[in-house]
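Title: Comparing notes on inverse folding

I've been comparing how different people in this forum approach sequence design from structure. To keep things fair, I'm posting one structure and asking everyone to reply with a full sequence. Here's the target:
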């Protein structure tokens, strides 16, 4: 199955209704590392099973959720969208390590 793709460089810069940039946060960079894995480029529709455990964000609004691999991503009505910003699509932004 193929999905629409979005590179990190061209992703819309999200902001909340308060004008604050909405992005995943971390404190200790030694626990994160860059990855070129293709799973980060896929835009998944609502109600699709997450392929990786981690943090996903709605590409057009910046809403973030955390989920486990195999869980169903939130539905079309998870959060309100103005028609002008398009539909909900989930993109993996931080993938949890699956090393035991
Ligand atoms: Zn959204």
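Reply #1:
Here's my take.
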């Amino acid at each position: 199955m193929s999905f629409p793709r979005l590179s990190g460089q061209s992703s819309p810069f999200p902001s909340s209704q308060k004008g604050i940039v909405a992005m995943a946060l971390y404190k200790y960079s030694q626990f994160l590392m860059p990855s070129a894995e293709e799973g980060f480029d896929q835009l998944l529709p609502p109600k699709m099973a997450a392929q990786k455990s981690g943090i996903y964000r709605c590409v057009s609004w910046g809403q973030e959720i955390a989920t486990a691999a195999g869980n169903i991503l939130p539905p079309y009505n998870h959060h309100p969208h103005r028609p002008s910003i398009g539909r909900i699509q989930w993109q993996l932004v931080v993938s949890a390590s699956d090393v035991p």
